[in-house]
Amino acid sequence: MMPKRSIATADADTLACCTPLFAGPIDVDDAAVLAKAFAALGDPVRVQLLGLLANGEVCACDLVEPVGKSQPTVSHHLKVLSEAGLIQGDKRGRWVWYSVAPERVLALRAALDIGS
What we know:
By secondary structure, this protein is of the alpha+beta class. The chain contains six helices and three strands, in the order H-H-H-E-H-H-E-E-H.
């Protein structure tokens, strides 16, 4: 099994040898969409929630305990992720089932692809 590559622990020589994040300038509208999505991931709870949703659809009621936050706090973070287009919700009765928006996550991944 290959070791995970971590940008946080990569040394300057490793980062200097890699290709730039983008081959050319980013359209202003695309940059705004990417910036909103990356900003949404600027909170550890949101990163945790996205990770929990990565394996499939999850009821909002099942997201409170794993992140150790109150239901209103989890709802707030889900709203931020949803507004950034990273997740989508499907209301069923009184509960909302959330899942990752794969096309948006793939776009973020492509934006960060540095040829690893």
